[in-house]
Design a protein that fits this description.
heterodimer, A: mainly alpha, Four Helix Bundle (Hemerythrin (Met), subunit A), 6 helices, elongated, B: 538 residues, mainly alpha, two-stranded antiparallel ribbon, 15 helices, 67% helix
């Protein structure tokens, strides 16, 4: 039943009987990892809910200080990058290596664009003194404890930003592996898992954007 | 005469480098065993320091009052995060699970090795913290104390964060292994119950651990940046920290006990040579415990100022945990009925477990009862209760598993006579230590105090002598187990006459686990259909 070692594909690790078993395992493992990511962010979502329930006025007033245009732009950037990521995977399924590289590169560009926009947002807040906790110096937001809103804002977007950075690293690594011809329509599991991760990071932002920017 | 096979996973490669770069789940299990044993003895030394200080009523008999808080904190942090949580899954789960499933390895061997390195990396943070000021918050790191004291809290909580990820990766690896790498014929209900318990544990590790991760990150940010979310003077809430903490740490109790329960299901059937009573009930109760454990964290916070209504609901839900636990205990007892019971060391530890865990579980019901809890909260009754579950349950089950699988791991048998003596010392020493503490708690002695009045003197002295006996028993265990690795009598493939797949391969197993990929033709405990003789020489 097991294939003998000579006709086993190179990517198939010794402890799997066949490629499909390896592919299914990797995919299940990745979904479980994404579940842990959801729970990691879950703690922050909980903190957000608690403090929004405690200080509803502060949250409404403080969120007016956020730049909806830049936030919205970033939402579009990330959603588009998810599309290009999906196209990269589709291309490798069709054995089109050049197209795969091209789409991964565009995804990478979008990721950097997101961070650049985020940088402008952050530096504006630094300048205004809209900072977390004890560093908060801004005056002009009505409501109790406005610094808590910015604690929550910086923790949530900061952790998300770290995940974007991680994604940039992984996508770069995937581009190197594509260039080295490690993937083909027969085997592209790591690329697909990178895609899953990237979509999750995208999706978390889709929740963060309305929760932080669109409170009215 | 039994012999040790020349080709086995221990001889497959030589040298330190081959161990530090190994992808073999069996060798990774042994790496974990060595590191966890080291920390077990460090944590144990801290425990003995506590008992030495509390032997007599005078202040600063052995350690300074200020240092006392450090000592019990380090005992707790090391024993929980560095020892008990990884113990059974990372050591025995790693070694035994793929063998039981008839697999060649876990699903992700590199991730498996990475999780050991993460564990060591985290452990080095913990050691760094100990040498740079330590922590005296108790293992729970409650804010605002932990966010304001001038001690090495950050590196200790980072240790918890990193070791948490090691635990997540272990759990994730095992879940995928169980789903995807079972041998042909190994249906879900032909899986050994140890695998079921590891599966339930894996779910808890994957779902609960990220929450402690984000909790300690928030704690670190609170210290570094003063973000204020746990600080009442800035509009934050210290009770929020407790909710965060116990949302993980209550399920973590089951991360610690569930794999132990799995071991008991294996040893009790193998030693009674009888099919398990209520296979499906035990399998599903593992999942039941895992599920219920997420709904009861508030019972750690009855006196924290949470709403009375919430406290009532948490108290009510807490009783539900008792149901799946009791299902297991009754099924194990029923398994013994009309069995052909051998009283080898694993069985003695199994009996110890049944007694100690039952006491620990039942006293848990006292504490889950809202009104009783208010009286007993923060007394030695609580300390005794969780030691009965954590040590009397998890560690005793771990010892049962070590004695049961030791001949499989090394191919050699330990000295049974010494093992039985040590088991007796551990059992008696443990009970002397902690029954005294139940009584102390009922008399009102608060936990975490470095000193006490003379009315508590007798019981405290008694408890300390018990702890020394317990420590001596564990030391003896370490000595004869290590001796067995080099000098033990070869044990043969199947010293206990058990039916699960790990006993069908040689001891120690070959590098690829099985000469020929196995097929599961029968259930793991079909002793009524198949007779396997023990391979031990008399």
């Amino acid at each position: 039943m097991e294939a003998s070692y000579s006709d086993r594909p190179k990517h198939l690790a010794h402890h799997f009987a066949e490629s499909k078993q390896q592919y299914d395992s990797a995919k299940l493992g990745m979904w479980l990892f994404l579940l842990t990511e959801v729970l990691l962010f879950g703690g922050l979502f909980l903190a957000y809910s608690v403090f929004r329930a405690w200080y509803p006025e502060t949250f409404v007033n403080a969120n007016k200080e956020l730049n909806v245009i830049l936030g919205g732009l970033n939402t579009i950037v990330l959603i588009t990058s998810s599309v290009t990521m999906a196209l990269a995977i589709r291309s490798i399924q069709l054995d089109r290596k050049e197209a795969t590289l091209k789409y991964l590169f565009v995804t990478l560009l979008f990721a950097f664009t997101f961070l650049v926009i985020k940088y402008f947002e952050y530096s504006h807040k630094f300048h205004e003194g809209q900072l977390p906790g004890k560093f908060y110096t801004f005056e002009g937001i009505d409501g109790t404890n406005p610094h808590i809103f910015f604690s929550v804002y910086f923790m949530m977007t900061g952790l998300h930003g770290l995940h974007i950075l991680g994604g940039i690293g992984v996508i770069t690594w995937m581009m190197i592996r594509v260039r080295k011809n490690e993937f083909s329509s027969q085997y592209y599991t790591p690329l697909e898992l990178t895609g899953l991760y990237w979509h999750l990071v995208d999706m978390i932002w889709i929740y963060l954007f309305p929760m932080l920017y669109l409170i009215r | 005469m039994n012999t040790i096979p020349e080709q086995n996973f221990l001889t497959a490669e030589k040298g330190l480098k081959s161990w530090l770069t190994t992808l073999d789940h069996k060798r990774i299990g042994i790496l974990y065993l060595i590191s966890i044993t080291f920390f077990f003895f460090v944590g144990g030394l801290f425990a003995l320091m506590i008992r030495l200080e509390l032997m007599f009523p005078q202040d600063e008999f052995f350690i300074k009052l200020d240092d006392f808080n450090q000592v019990f904190t380090l005992h707790g942090v090391i024993m929980i995060f560095l020892v008990i949580i990884p113990s059974v899954p990372a050591v025995l789960g790693n070694f035994v699970l793929p063998l039981q499933l008839g697999a060649k390895d876990v699903a992700f061997p590199r991730l498996n090795l990475a999780s050991w390195y993460l564990y060591m990396f985290g452990a080095s943070f913990a050691l760094f913290s100990i040498f740079t000021g330590g922590v005296d918050t108790g293992w729970t790191f409650y804010a605002p104390y932990s966010t304001t004291i001038d001690r090495s809290v950050i590196s200790m909580t980072m240790a918890v964060f990193i070791i948490g990820f090691s635990s997540i990766f272990t759990g994730l690896n095992f879940i995928v292994t169980i789903h995807k790498l079972r041998a042909p014929g190994m249906t879900w209900f032909r899986m050994p119950l140890f695998a079921w318990s590891i599966y339930a544990t894996g779910i808890l590790q994957v779902v609960a651990t990220p929450v402690i991760g984000i909790t300690v990150v928030l704690l670190v940010l609170e210290r570094l940046l003063g973000i204020g979310i746990f600080d009442p003077t800035m509009g934050g809430d210290p009770v929020l920290f407790q909710h965060f903490f116990w949302f993980y740490s209550h399920p973590a109790v089951y991360i610690m006990i569930l794999p132990g329960m799995g071991i008991i299901s294996e040893t009790i059937t193998a030693m009674a040579h009888k099919n398990i009573f209520g296979y499906k009930a035990i399998a599903y109760s593992s999942l039941g415990i895992a599920f219920t454990s997420f709904l009861v964290w508030g019972h750690h916070m009855f006196v924290s100022g949470q709403s009375e209504f919430a406290a009532m609901v948490f108290s009510f839900l807490t009783f539900f945990v008792a149901i799946p636990s009791a299902i297991k205990v009754f099924n194990w007892i029923a398994t013994l009925y009309k069995g052909s019971i051998s009283l080898d060391t694993p069985m003695l530890y199994t009996f110890s477990f049944l007694i100690l865990f039952t006491i620990g579980g039942l006293t848990g019901l006292f504490l889950g009862t809202l009104s009783v809890n208010v009286t007993l909260s923060d007394t030695y009754f609580v300390v005794a209760h969780f030691h009965y579950v954590m040590m009397g349950g998890s560690i005793i089950a771990f010892l049962a598993g070590l004695h049961y699988w030791w001949p499989k791991i090394w191919g050699r048998m330990y000295n049974e006579k010494l093992a039985k003596i040590a088991c007796g010392m551990v059992f008696v020493g443990f009970n002397v230590t902690f029954i005294s503490q139940f009584l102390l708690g009922l008399k009102g002695m608060p936990r975490r105090y470095a000193t006490f009045t003379s009315e508590f003197a007798q019981l405290n002295g008694f408890s300390s002598w018990g702890a020394f006996l317990l420590g001596a028993g564990l030391l003896l265990t370490a000595i004869y187990l290590i001796h067995a690795v080099y000098k033990g009598k070869p044990a043969g493939n199947n010293p206990w006459g058990a039916l699960t797949l790990e006993w069908t391969t040689s001891s120690p197993p070959p590098h690829n686990n099985f000469e020929k990929s196995p097929t599961a033709h029968y259930g793991p405990y079909d002793f009524d259909k198949i007779v396997v003789e023990s391979t031990l020489d008399d």
